[in-house]
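re: ur question from earlier - yeah i can do the single chain one, its not a big deal. heres the input i used so u can compare w yours
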Amino acid sequence: MHSKMADTSPTSGTQAGKGLAPRPPKAPKADILIVDDVPANLHLLSEILTRQGFKIRSAINGHMALMATRAAPPDLILLDINMPGMNGFEVCEHLRADEDTRDIPIIFISALDETADKDKAFTVRGRDYVTKPVQLEEVLARVETHLALRDLQAELQHANDELESRVEERTAQVVQLAVEKGQLEHELHMAREVQASFLPRETPQV
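and the output i got, formated as tokens:
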């Protein structure tokens, strides 16, 4: 059952007042690649997600999906399984083997409803599985959830990188202080030896 989406396009009654500059368009919430060999499925998902503010790209087979992803990695991929030439599982395996694309969230969307198919999807490191015919509210919820998880992981990675950088910086400072301390101790030792060389070796008798 397809959900009806409210028309959010601006009307004449909501136009900016006279003399006011129009608001700039909002930046897309995320870049999503939809991969499906059925044009109707591509059109439906593209229309719904575009209305929700996402930037949508599409591919009609696995080879095109790989090229599009490697050229410009999306934030998330909606991936069909049964496609000619290269199926969705194979696409996912190729992406997971590439360091630049291995962490992209992949949600499988397929008419295959057997447990073995779902197990296979998670075995190749898909993040989620939605069965066709899709419920649009479910797809939106899964997309939003995995994008939120992706953002949290990115923030955690950034925090870890920053912490490691601070630890390395602090370690370098400690090492430098140790080196300077060693140099200072060596200089003091040399100064004592020089000072001792000027002192009489025996106390003169009176």
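The beta strands are 31-35, 55-59, 76-79, 106-110, 128-131. not sure if urs matches, ping me
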